[in-house]
Write a structure and sequence with these properties.
The chain has about 120 residues and is mainly alpha-helical. It has two domains: about 1-40, no CATH class; about 45-119, no CATH class. It contains five helices and two strands, in the order αβαβααα. It has a two-stranded parallel ribbon. α3 (about 50-65) crosses α4 (about 70-85) and α3 (about 50-65) crosses α5.
Length: about 120
């Protein structure tokens, strides 16, 4: 894990769902020691995670390819699908999730005026 983090720019913020691997104490410790921020999505809220939108599109496209003759063909189709999404709409995914998060934060803070999530 430490080796992977060495490639991540300083100031980067990790966004995690609640998968078991993302909730380990060791991961939390490594991130804190490396001075990275970590945001945990609310349980069962995949709509707040940009990668879920990307996975959905890729899975839909793979279904459209139909029955495959080989593992190699499946890998080729997967690579093509991922490559198509490399840049063109990543900003849109993040923008969409950011709007959802702001909406939820605003709703929470209006319901609980004495609690501020961010200053």
């Amino acid at each position: 894990m430490e080796e992977l983090i060495s490639f991540v720019p300083l100031g980067f913020c990790f966004v995690f769902d609640n998968a078991k691997i993302h909730t380990s104490a060791k991961l939390e410790e490594i991130l804190q020691e490396s001075n990275y921020s970590c945001i945990r999505n609310a349980p069962y809220s995949p709509e707040m995670s940009p990668v879920e939108y990307i996975f959905h599109e890729i899975k839909q496209e793979l279904k459209e390819f139909g029955i495959l003759d080989s593992k190699e063909q499946m890998i080729k189709n997967l690579q093509q699908s991922i490559e198509k999404r490399r840049d063109y709409n990543l900003c849109n995914y993040y923008s969409h999730c950011e709007k959802l998060c702001i909406k939820e934060i605003t709703k929470f803070e209006s319901q609980y005026p004495n609690i501020r999530l961010f200053e």
